[in-house]
Design a protein that fits this description.
This protein is an alpha/beta fold. The protein has a single domain, classed as Rossmann fold, CATH 3.40.50.1820. The chain is 35% helix and 19% strand. The protein is built from 11 helices and 9 strands. β8, α10 and β9 form a beta-alpha-beta unit. α3 crosses α4.
């Protein structure tokens, strides 16, 4: 894999003190932002956003809390945010390759991974297939496979003619949520708002595919983990319990009165994320040095 860094100054729209660059991974540029300074003394946090989102939209409110005492890396995945789409599907494997490519470019051996929704799926993918790069994992609103999702949501993904019930409509992104996503494409993506629908189609192809991991694969995850969902999430609570029971030593957090679309705004979440990281480092002191 050929890697090099280039400054993407024309695409940078960042919170104060963030450094935005791209890493070239297998011939395409993957954009990331870095908050703080990478040192050998602190393992960074790696943030993985949800589908149709970007680093800023998903994590802007949480980055200040997470970056108080350690560096934070946010990656815009293929077709999202500042990262242009390229030929080929969006898969968990391709996103894993891109994510590890950014860490390689930054010379980061290991990171505390926090992923939401699609990013939580990617976090599980990293923990299963590259556990040596994961200091801890928090998978927010992510499931093991389609069986862990609300059945009607899976049916909606597979059948575009399905009319959603009022109960599921309450849980879906609102017009305001879609407007924010569209604005993200307009302001950040090299393809502009026109890149939104093609990416949606690629993500839908992923979601209706046979993605996921076996219980045996999850049971072999060797890293400290936390499974976090809302009590009215896209992920069934019983499935979150299954994940926490299957991944050795995993914590389980089910936040009350919380949906898939509101969980990142939950007041309790920042402290939960920091506690998972701090406990992982207290139990495994070697995880506090990443480079």
């Amino acid at each position: 894999m050929r890697l090099h860094l280039t400054v993407a100054a024309a695409l940078i729209v960042l919170p104060l003190h963030a450094l935005g660059e791209t890493a070239n991974v297998d011939g395409h540029e993957v954009w990331y932002e870095l908050h703080g300074e990478l040192t050998a003394k602190q393992t960074p946090v790696l943030l993985l956003h949800g589908g149709m989102m970007n680093t800023e939209l998903a994590w802007a409110e949480l980055i200040p809390a997470l970056s108080q005492d350690r560096p934070v890396i946010g990656i815009d995945q293929q077709g999202h945010g500042h990262t242009a789409d390229h030929e080929g599907p969006v898969t968990l494997e391709t996103m894993r390759t891109d994510t590890l490519g950014v860490l390689d470019a930054l010379r980061v051996d290991k990171a505390h991974v926090i992923g939401f929704s699609l990013g939580g799926m990617l976090g599980l993918e990293l923990a299963v297939n590259a556990p040596e790069r994961v200091a801890s994992l928090t998978a927010i609103s992510a499931s093991q496979n389609n069986d862990g999702m609300l059945p009607e949501l899976v049916e909606m993904n597979r059948n575009p003619d399905h009319a959603p019930s009022p109960e599921i409509v309450e849980l879906l992104p609102s017009p305001k949520d879609f407007l924010e996503m569209r604005r993200g494409f307009e302001e950040q993506n090299p393809g502009g708002s026109g890149a939104m629908v093609p990416l949606m189609k690629k993500l839908n192809a992923l979601l209706i595919s046979d993605w996921g991991w076996s219980d045996e694969e999850l049971a072999a995850i060797p890293v400290p983990a936390m499974i976090a969902i809302g009590d009215r999430d896209f992920v069934r609570p019983a499935h979150a319990v299954h994940l926490a029971e299957t991944i050795p030593g995993a914590w389980l957090t089910i936040l009350p009165d919380t949906t898939h679309m509101t969980i990142l705004d939950a007041p309790a979440l920042p402290d939960l994320l920091k506690r998972r990281i701090e406990t992982a480092e207290a139990d495994n002191p070697e995880t506090s040095a990443s480079q």
